[in-house]
Amino acid sequence: MTPAIQTEPQAMSEILGRYPQGERRWLIPILQDTQEHFGYLPEEAICRVSDYLRVPTSKIYGVATFYNQFRLAAPGKYIVRICRGTACHVKGSALLLEKLVQELKIQPGQTTRDGLFSIETVACIGACSIAPVVAVNNEFHGRVEPKEVPRILSQYRKLEEKKS
Q1: Looking at the domain that runs over 3-66, which CATH code has it been given?
Q2: Consecutive sets of 10 residues in the chain, 164 residues long: mean pLDDT of each?
Q3: Spelled out in words, what is the top-level CATH class assigned to the domain 78-163?
């Protein structure tokens, strides 16, 4: 069992209770509610949804992996989003992504082993005037050069050290 489900045993019952049992058409809204509550789709939650809707888990995983709104792993405390929009692309966001992958030793969609960082690519952050942009949670870093990536990550690591 995942820790999130262990600490909130009623959460899935409450989520599922909002929807009619056995009606497959409610799969996506149930998955959205589940992810909103837990931050991702825990394996045990997927099994509960499977039983409730009478849908094979393989179908649920198919839906969850098809739509990029769903996560199958817990996100990091700091979600690092790299803008891949036109302005950011032209200004070198691919190099930023490369540097992030190198520094964190994970790929987009993954979370570091310590649970601190996740990398996501987004189509557009909407801050084209300061391209290329890296957003960490809701904090924007503009006109970022690859050599600045270690310093940006270090900022958030230091925040965590101060908390412990």
Answers
A1: 1.10.10
A2: 52 95 97 95 95 97 92 93 96 97 95 95 95 96 98 96 85
A3: alpha beta
